[in-house]
Design goal:
Number of domains: 1
Strand content: 5-15%
Mean pLDDT: 93
CATH architecture: 3-Layer(aba) Sandwich
């Protein structure tokens, strides 16, 4: 019989990154870039329609984005490791998160690995953060957001932190992505914190 001291009880440092077809694909890309500076293993799943958003919002090729992750899964790969609750992860960040993706997660009726992985994270009581990209919101959107919140998920729209006095869009993207990762207790040097990096006296 093996000694109990030999049992590894440290949770694997794996984070799932989902990128849906909503505007703001740079949020997910920047999150991957920031995670590349850490020891956290990244598992990326991109919705099929995201290709169109990438082409319209960036000069990047999809393969360049995929190269930022340690593991990449096709949206239709329902047999992927991250589709099972037995595969331990820290949770999942969807950046950006479309209204369609949020709706699937809220209903529990998942049509792709993107929403299935999120559903698994919720049922296993792990951290799910959705950087919802839509405005204004009607009652149906708000009800879905409430449903996910009641399930334990976090709705975190990428609202710019103007107290950091950003001078470029890139700075706002970095702060938003870093703040989302902070919800997983992932500390990145790019995150500017009120009361630490930014104080009233700095204004």
């Amino acid at each position: 019989m093996s000694n109990s001291d030999d049992i590894n009880t440290t949770p694997p440092q794996r984070l799932i990154i989902g990128i849906s077809a909503a505007s703001g694909v740079m949020l997910g890309i920047r999150a991957l870039e920031l995670l590349g500076q850490t020891d956290i293993e990244t598992h990326l799943v991109i919705s099929k329609a995201t290709t169109l958003t990438v082409a319209s919002e960036t000069n990047l090729h999809l393969d360049e984005i995929k190269s930022l992750a340690d593991h990449v899964y096709a949206a239709g790969d329902i047999a992927a490791a991250i589709s099972s609750g037995s595969y331990k992860t820290m949770g999942m960040l969807i950046a950006p998160c479309s209204i369609k993706t949020m709706g699937e997660i809220a209903s529990g009726v998942t049509s792709s690995l993107l929403s299935r992985a999120a559903d698994v994270v919720l049922k296993e009581r792990r951290r799910l953060v959705l950087m919802l990209r839509e405005t204004p919101l009607h009652a149906g959107h708000l009800k879905n957001a409430l449903a996910i919140t009641e399930m334990g998920g976090i709705i975190a729209p990428p609202v710019p932190a103007f107290y950091t006095r950003p001078t470029t869009v890139d700075e706002m993207i970095t702060q938003s992505a870093a703040r989302a990762l902070d919800l997983f207790n992932i500390n990145t040097p790019d995150l500017k914190r009120w009361g630490e990096d930014v104080k009233m006296s700095d204004k």
